[in-house]
Amino acid sequence: MNKIPRRKFIQLSAAAATGAVVLSGRHAVAEDLPKLAEDDPMAQAMKYVHDAGTVDAASRPNPAAEQNCANCALIQGEDGAEWRPCQIFPGKLVAANGWCSVWAPKG
Length: 107
Description:
Layout: H1 6-23, H2 41-45, E1 83-85, E2 93-95
Antiparallel strand pairs: 1-2
């Protein structure tokens, strides 16, 4: 079982709780959601980029050979979609080829 550092667990919990509150009263279809911009304050705080290939693998907090939003445990929506919802960025779509510092392996 993978251990998640306490700080990362708190970030994930806060983001998930925020998403639950924000989206609880509205049923949204992925096509209705805006794409997350790299200059969005939340995206910058989580070091989100649209292209995981631009991130130095050595600087990633959770080492893995291939990390991108499509293989992250927090991604939602249909496999294969270019843009998908993510639990960390409620109400926004992330690029399947993107990456952020909260990336977690699917388990």
